[in-house]
């Protein structure tokens, strides 16, 4: 096992017992079974149980609801989508557990480094050198990035690292964005660092389709053919953009393609070969043909459930692919694996041949887009109500204005205070609090719309009563909040943002 002083210092900051609520196997050193870009490999134990199901429908859904009636969870995002988004946010925020005397590692303007892939020894990968993957936060903009360290690489040509500039211009939904690259000696050696965009809770296709399991009798079922066509279409689209920019991907490998969502993949680790093999001086056309070969090999590996290191007899594997899938898929993979006879293969030609399956991917993406817009429509109302609640919260009972005749809770400000009690502080005949979310949301929606409906407001001592419409209350909210924005004679003017 190779000794890395930087990794040894990080290991001192790891807790002796870790528990990860996301991991399928609750073992922090799961090795190849750990997620590549995910949160399984971070080590900060949550300080409290993660509350994902705030609006989860605990009771069975009632079928007797009237058309105008809604359950609580109908007003918010679906619980599965909410949980997924919260898990990704939690993964992005996780940091190494702090230990006395152990300083958090940093690289230039990147801090809070967290290892994403845990390897017990420095084994070279497809790049020929040991690599490590980290999650880090930038001091420049506060965004989170993925850092890939190529260990022991000595840069002999300054022009090599400039090759990354061409990749920084490429923006594609199926390519992980390249941010920058630089060299460092913070690891007590000569290392090369590549910075890419970070996608939490992602995993490589190798981890997804070839999971490490202790049950030798378990064998995963065949991958649906639509999934293979989707992979082929997405990677072909990525190659079309890369080849159009006079570049070659050179990293189409099952361990370098990440799955970020359901059947949504991205090509990662781009630009690394262009730097470390800068002096090889190979023609771009030859490298582009290798991309097609590697693409066919990737689909063949997943379709036949064969690890890439065991793919010696491609002809036999093609016959096996033909027995489980359509003849069209077999011919397309065979075309990718075949050497060009008279002219080079092109990504445009491949996209034209995949036109029917491109339409399937387009329909699937459009359906996912429509579903996301539908969910956002629910949250749109919630955003409006939050802004309204923020205004009411800033107006009611400000302690710094006690005794100020310019801000006494009389007239419209007093009615807003009574409206607050009407919405949030209602009680029943026994004096018990009434917790009715439907009443709260209904009142706030009517206030935001400014309807002509009248409500009866009374003070807590029942000495003052008002009959007022929501339209009048809305005008009072705008007037009182406008006074706050203008400031008064005793307070400096305060600026408001986002209201």
Automatic annotation (TrEMBL):
<keyword id="KW-0067">ATP-binding</keyword>
<dbReference type="GO" id="GO:0031251">
    <property type="term" value="C:PAN complex"/>
</dbReference>
<dbReference type="Pfam" id="PF18101">
    <property type="entry name" value="Pan3_CK"/>
</dbReference>
<protein>
    <recommendedName>
        <fullName>PAN2-PAN3 deadenylation complex subunit PAN3</fullName>
    </recommendedName>
</protein>
<dbReference type="GO" id="GO:0005524">
    <property type="term" value="F:ATP binding"/>
</dbReference>
<comment type="function">
    <text>Regulatory subunit of the poly(A)-nuclease (PAN) deadenylation complex, one of two cytoplasmic mRNA deadenylases involved in mRNA turnover. PAN specifically shortens poly(A) tails of RNA and the activity is stimulated by poly(A)-binding protein PAB1. PAN deadenylation is followed by rapid degradation of the shortened mRNA tails by the CCR4-NOT complex. Deadenylated mRNAs are then degraded by two alternative mechanisms, namely exosome-mediated 3'-5' exonucleolytic degradation, or deadenlyation-dependent mRNA decaping and subsequent 5'-3' exonucleolytic degradation by XRN1.</text>
</comment>
<dbReference type="InterPro" id="IPR030844">
    <property type="entry name" value="PAN3"/>
</dbReference>
<dbReference type="GO" id="GO:0008143">
    <property type="term" value="F:poly(A) binding"/>
</dbReference>
<feature type="coiled-coil region">
    <location>
        <begin position="356"/>
        <end position="394"/>
    </location>
</feature>
<feature type="region of interest" description="Knob domain">
    <location>
        <begin position="395"/>
        <end position="499"/>
    </location>
</feature>
<dbReference type="GO" id="GO:0006397">
    <property type="term" value="P:mRNA processing"/>
</dbReference>
<keyword id="KW-0862">Zinc</keyword>
<dbReference type="GO" id="GO:0000289">
    <property type="term" value="P:nuclear-transcribed mRNA poly(A) tail shortening"/>
</dbReference>
<feature type="domain" description="Pan3 C-terminal knob">
    <location>
        <begin position="348"/>
        <end position="484"/>
    </location>
</feature>
<keyword id="KW-0507">mRNA processing</keyword>
<comment type="subunit">
    <text>Homodimer. Forms a heterotrimer with a catalytic subunit PAN2 to form the poly(A)-nuclease (PAN) deadenylation complex. Interacts (via PAM-2 motif) with poly(A)-binding protein PAB1 (via PABC domain), conferring substrate specificity of the enzyme complex.</text>
</comment>
<keyword id="KW-0547">Nucleotide-binding</keyword>
<dbReference type="GO" id="GO:0008270">
    <property type="term" value="F:zinc ion binding"/>
</dbReference>
<keyword id="KW-0479">Metal-binding</keyword>
<feature type="binding site">
    <location>
        <position position="148"/>
    </location>
    <ligand>
        <name>ATP</name>
    </ligand>
</feature>
<dbReference type="GO" id="GO:0000932">
    <property type="term" value="C:P-body"/>
</dbReference>
<dbReference type="InterPro" id="IPR041332">
    <property type="entry name" value="Pan3_CK"/>
</dbReference>
<feature type="binding site">
    <location>
        <begin position="255"/>
        <end position="256"/>
    </location>
    <ligand>
        <name>ATP</name>
    </ligand>
</feature>
<dbReference type="InterPro" id="IPR011009">
    <property type="entry name" value="Kinase-like_dom_sf"/>
</dbReference>
<keyword id="KW-0175">Coiled coil</keyword>
<comment type="similarity">
    <text>Belongs to the protein kinase superfamily. PAN3 family.</text>
</comment>
<keyword id="KW-0963">Cytoplasm</keyword>
<keyword id="KW-0863">Zinc-finger</keyword>
């Amino acid at each position: 096992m190779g000794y890395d002083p930087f990794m040894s210092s990080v290991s001192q900051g790891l807790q002796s017992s870790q528990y990860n609520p996301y991991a399928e196997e609750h073992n922090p050193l799961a090795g190849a079974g750990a997620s590549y870009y995910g949160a399984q490999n971070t080590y900060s134990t949550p300080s409290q149980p993660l509350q994902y199901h705030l609006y989860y429908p605990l009771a069975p859904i009632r079928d007797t609801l009237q058309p105008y009636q809604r359950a609580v969870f109908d007003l918010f995002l679906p619980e599965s989508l909410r949980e997924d988004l919260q898990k990704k946010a939690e993964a992005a925020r996780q940091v190494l557990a702090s230990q006395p005397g152990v300083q958090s590692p940093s690289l230039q303007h990147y801090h809070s480094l967290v290892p994403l892939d845990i390897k017990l020894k420095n084994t070279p990968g497809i790049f020929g050198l040991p690599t490590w993957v980290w999650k880090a936060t930038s001091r420049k903009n506060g965004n989170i990035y993925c850092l890939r360290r190529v260990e022991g690489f000595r840069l002999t040509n300054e022009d090599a690292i400039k090759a990354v500039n061409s990749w920084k211009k490429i923006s594609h939904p199926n390519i992980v964005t390249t941010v920058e690259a630089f060299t460092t000696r913070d690891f007590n050696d000569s290392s090369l660092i590549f910075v890419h965009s970070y996608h939490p809770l992602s995993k490589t296709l190798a981890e997804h389709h070839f999971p490490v399991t202790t049950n030798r009798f378990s064998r995963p079922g065949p991958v649906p053919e639509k999934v293979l066509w989707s992979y082929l279409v997405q990677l072909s689209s990525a190659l079309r953009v890369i080849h159009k920019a006079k570049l070659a991907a050179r990293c189409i490998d099952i361990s370098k393609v990440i799955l970020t969502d359901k059947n949504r993949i991205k090509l990662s680790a781009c630009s690394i070969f262009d730097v470390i093999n800068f002096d090889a001086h190979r023609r771009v056309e030859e490298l582009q043909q290798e991309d097609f070969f590697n693409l066919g090999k990737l689909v063949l590996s997943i379709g036949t459930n064969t690890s890439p290191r065991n793919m010696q007899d491609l002809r036999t594997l093609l016959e096996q692919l033909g027995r489980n899938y359509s003849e069209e898929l077999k011919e397309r993979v065979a075309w990718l694996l075949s050497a060009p006879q008279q002219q080079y293969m092109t990504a445009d030609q491949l996209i034209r041949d995949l036109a029917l399956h491109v339409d399937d991917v387009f329909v699937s993406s459009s359906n996912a887009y429509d579903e996301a817009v539908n969910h956002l429509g629910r949250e749109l109302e919630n955003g409006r109500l939050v802004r309204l609640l923020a205004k009411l919260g800033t107006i009611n009972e400000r302690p710094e204005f006690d005794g100020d005749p310019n801000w006494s809770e009389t007239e419209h400000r007093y009615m807003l205070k009574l409206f607050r009690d009407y919405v949030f502080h209602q009680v029943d005949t026994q004096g018990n609090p009434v917790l009715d979310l439907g009443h709260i949301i209904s009142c706030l929606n009517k206030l935001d719309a400014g309807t002509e409906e009248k409500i009866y407001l009374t003070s807590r001592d029942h000495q003052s009563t008002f009959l007022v419409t929501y339209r009048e209350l809305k005008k009072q909210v705008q007037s009182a909040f406008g006074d706050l924005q203008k400031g008064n004679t005793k307070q400096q003017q305060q600026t408001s943002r986002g209201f």
